[in-house]
């Protein structure tokens, strides 16, 4: 079952996913960043958003 | 004290997670865009890398780009996805001017966007990391 985005200031439940954030609020999520871009363009065309990948682990070593 | 040829960017962590603060920069591919992308600034990376699906949504033309025969090697081994090199203009907190950067567009959504040394760090006189102050400093 697909998870809904939380809409909260909390990224714990989005680990490993791509999310779009409006301020500290998650407004879109997906495993595919292209889909996140589509959602944001459709729903928030004139709003500043930041797209990022939430690391799965708390510490990152880019290997 | 910051001057006009110096930009100080505070490290960021992810809201309400116990992740560490990291040197990240928010970039845009078009200054008029409302969407920006958070990238890790990685002094250990030779090149910059982004997921291909983002490049495709940005309508970057990859039709004449062939994947690298030898994708960059990760410290733990060879990358298992195709990488398409393509120069792209990026905009960020360093000023109004764009940086033309060759990005490796990797055919994987597992890739974390990274700004590496070649083509990015070398656009600045100095790139400094202050772990004590949790700041990234770009000096022109």
Describe the structure.
The complex is a heterodimer of chains A (63) and B (140). Chain A contains 1 helix and 3 strands, in the order ββαβ. Chain A has a domain at 12-53. Helix content of chain A is 17%, strand content 25%. Chain A is of the alpha+beta class. The two termini of chain B are 15 Å apart. The radius of gyration of chain B is 15 Å and the shape is globular. Chain B has one helix at 52-57; strands spanning 6-10, 24-27, 35-41, 48-51, 73-74, 77-78, 83-92, 95-106, 114-115, 126-130, 135-139. In chain B, 4% of the residues lie in helices and 41% in strands. Chain B contains 1 helix and 11 strands. Chain B is mainly beta. Chain B has a 3-stranded antiparallel beta sheet, with no helix packed on it. In chain B, strands 2-3-9 form a 3-stranded mixed beta sheet, with no helix packed on it. Chain B has a single domain (6-11, 31-139), classed as Cathepsin D, subunit A, domain 1, CATH 2.40.70.10. In chain B, a hairpin with a 4-residue loop joins β10 (126-130) and β11 (135-139). The longest helix of chain B is centred in the middle third of the chain and has 6 residues, at 52-57. The A-B interface holds A 8-12, 15, 18, 20-21, 24, 31-34, 37-38, 40-41, 44-55, 58-60, 62-63 and B 14-20, 22, 26, 34-38, 40, 42, 44-45, 51, 53-54, 56-57, 74-76, 109, 111-114.
Question: Which key phrases capture this entry?
Answer:
heterodimer, A: 63 residues, alpha+beta, 1 helix, 3 strands, 17% helix, 25% strand, B: 140 residues, mainly beta, Cathepsin D, subunit A, domain 1, 3-stranded antiparallel β-sheet, 3-stranded mixed β-sheet
């Amino acid at each position: 079952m697909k998870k809904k985005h939380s809409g909260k200031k909390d990224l714990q439940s989005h680990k490993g996913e791509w999310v779009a954030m409006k301020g500290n609020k998650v407004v879109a999520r997906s495993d595919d960043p292209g889909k996140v871009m589509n959602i944001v363009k459709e729903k928030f065309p004139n709003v500043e958003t930041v797209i990022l990948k939430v690391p799965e682990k708390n510490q990152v070593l880019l290997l | 004290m910051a001057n006009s040829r110096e930009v100080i960017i505070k490290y960021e962590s992810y809201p309400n997670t116990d992740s560490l603060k990291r040197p990240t920069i928010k970039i845009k591919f078009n200054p008029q865009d409302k969407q920006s992308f958070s990238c890790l600034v990685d002094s250990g990376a030779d090149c910059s890398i982004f997921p291909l699906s983002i490049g495709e949504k940005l309508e970057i033309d990859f039709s004449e780009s062939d994947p690298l025969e030898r994708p960059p090697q990760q410290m733990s081994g060879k990358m298992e996805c195709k990488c398409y090199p393509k120069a792209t203009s990026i905009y960020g907190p360093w000023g109004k001017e764009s940086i033309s950067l060759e990005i490796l567009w990797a055919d994987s959504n597992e890739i974390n966007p990274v700004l590496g040394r070649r083509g990015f760090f070398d656009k600045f006189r100095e790139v400094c990391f202050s772990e004590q102050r949790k700041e990234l400093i770009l000096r022109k």
